[in-house]
Amino acid sequence: MKTQIIKGIPVETVVFDAYGTIFDVHAAVMKSAEVLGPLARPLSELWRAKQLEYTWIRSLSARYMSFWRLTEQSLDYALATIAPDHSSLRNTILEAYRDLDAYSDAASALAYLRSTGIKTAILSNGDAAMLERAVLSAHLGGMFDALLSVETIGVYKTDPAAYRLVEQQMGILPKATAFVSSNRWDIAGANVAGFHCIWLNRLARADEYPDMAPSAVIQSLAELLTD
Fold first, then answer.
1. Tell me, what's the pLDDT at 80?
2. Is domain 27-98 given the CATH code 3.30.300.30 in the classification?
3. Which residue from 134, 16, 120, 22 is spatially nearest to 71, judged by alpha carbons?
4. What angle do CA 38, 40, 43 make, to 5 degrees?
5. Are the beta carbons of 66 and 51 closer than 8 angstroms?
6. 8: buried, middle or exposed (CB in 10 Å: 19+, 13-18, 0-12)?
7. Among all residues, which ones are annotated catalytic?
8. Second CATH level (architecture) for the domain 4-24+101-225
9. For the CA atoms of 42, 48, 49, 52, what is the dihedral angle to 10 degrees?
């Protein structure tokens, strides 16, 4: 299998987180920003925070529920808390989440990586059907060798079993894999799993988890094109 140097790291495959890394998780609410006004951003941020919190609680409690159902439940909470007068937007926002916009730097970065001959994949908490629809609606069909969903094992990241899906389903060892995520907690989990981790720190946030550090930090996927 072909090896390439990505950000100084020799790898055979680059695996991406989906939501927040390839797909803009705030795009769904922002499509209703004209109606929501100043409530749009806090609504979207609370929704995302609760969506993630629910995955961690479910994993720790060994009570798996599909990511789509958790997405619905967390939106219900966010609407009730931030914008109860706009509950009628629920279905509109959920439908927009099914077809999230890809970040503007995603397509060119993926095309470049694939042109080098290495494999690309997604490893996500998202349900398989969610990932397939998101990729197609964002016009990224054919850009990934695999779409790996934790739905197959019933536990969310950062459980080590989630990261083992790459080796189990693609036959590629963690030491030959670069894992790219915008979520620092996800980078921590992938570090423990043995991946070379590249933190996509789009918003220049402060670092966390110093004992589970990334191999490289970038602010745009375009930086994957250069060492």
1. 98
2. no
3. 134
4. 120
5. no
6. exposed
7. 17
8. 3-Layer(aba) Sandwich (3.40)
9. 180
Q: Is the bond preceding residue 158 a cis peptide, omega within 30 degrees?
A: yes
Which tens digit of pLDDT belongs to each residue from 102-121? 999 999 999 999 999 999 99
Contact 18, 87 (CB under 8 A): no
**Domain limits, CATH 1.10.150.240, in the chain:** 27-98
Amino acid present at 125: N
- Are 129 and 152 in contact by the 8 Å Cβ rule? The answer is no
pTM: 0.96
Residues sharing a CB contact under 8 Å with residue 142, sequence separation 6 or more, in sequence order: none
Comma-separated ranges of CATH 3.40.50.1000 domains in the chain: 4-24+101-225
Angle formed by the axes of helices 67-82 and 40-60, nearest 10°: 140
Assigned token pair, 221 = 């996927």
- Residue 1, pLDDT above cutoff 80: no
Tokens of 214: 């990334």
**Rounded-to-integer distance, Cα 222 and Cα 84, Å:** 39
Give strand pairing partners of 197.
179
What's the rounded Cα separation, in Å, for the pair 30 and 124?
23
Distance separating alpha carbons of residues 127 and 144, to the nearest angstrom: 16
Packed helices 128-137 and 90-98: angle between N→C axes, nearest 10 degrees: 80
